[in-house]
Amino acid sequence: MGFVVNKLSNTVAEVVGLDGSKPMAPEDIARLKATFLSHPIMCLRDQKLTPAQQGAFARQWGPLEGQDRSAFCHPEDKDILILSNDRRPDGSQVGIVDAGDFWHSDSSHLAEPCRITTLHAVRNPARGGDTYFLDMRAVYDALPEHLKKRVAGRDAIHHVAKTLNPRVAVSTERAGAVEYYKQREKETKPVTQPIVRTHPETGRQALYISPRFTIAIDGMDDAEAQPLLDELFRFMFSNPAWQYTHKWRDGDLVMWDNACLNHMAGGGYEYPDVRWMHRATVVGDRPYYRAA
Ligand SMILES: [Fe+2]
Questions:
Q1: Which tens digit of pLDDT belongs to each residue from 214-245?
Q2: Domains and CATH numbers, the chain
Q3: Which residues surround ligand 1, an ion (CB under 5 A)?
Q4: pTM
Q5: How far apart are the CA of 103 and the centre of ligand 1, in A?
Q6: Is the pLDDT of residue 170 over 70?
Q7: Which end of the chain is more exposed for a tag (fewer CB within 10 A), N or C?
């Protein structure tokens, strides 16, 4: 298939002229995979995809992660999650309304977090709705040596319950969210993740923590760990050159590599200005650290 890959920065590649609704030829998949290793944010423009077609596209990269929020899964493909602020006539939400409202790497609260996220912009709001990305490889590379030494080989503790994390707040837009997270506190075990994550394919190191999911450091008292996390989080956001803002066009299919990025939904729109996205996530392996 004749498509063009435009490398927009060290992190972002734009793909034009590829029809993601059709199965890709092996050489096309190989070309996209090679691009994705160097450019972990890839935007395929002008995609007209049904949920089933998006699911089929994403499965070419690996099996999809099951979703635990079944009320917001698409009936056409249960592995597609609806992220939206739209409402039914009775006022109920059609999708997750507060998805990604703090910096995170997707599902790092699971022992085997998803590796790739695919997000399809079905409908964008008239204003707002940007997604912010942060290149955690660049963050790691720039980290001062004394901080690299303190975190190398250490694990952090990640948890899904926002109610356990003073660095985030529970959205007031989502009905029953506090009760949901209180329940998750009881039912969900925290997981440990390496603070420095070695990329399973490129071997490149990235900082693998986030304000959303990282709540402590394994084997370190909070008196020492919380100031260290604060210092790392401050450092992450200290250089705008490590960030990329994606301004969505209708039909964009953006896929990103959670092994080496943080991202966040920018918000800035209000119902009845509707944002409607479909998300499918490709499973990943247990993250690890290997000294360079
Ligand atoms: Fe996310």
A1: 999 999 999 999 999 999 999 999 999 999 99
A2: 4-282 (3.60.130.10)
A3: 100, 106
A4: 0.96
A5: 8
A6: yes
A7: C
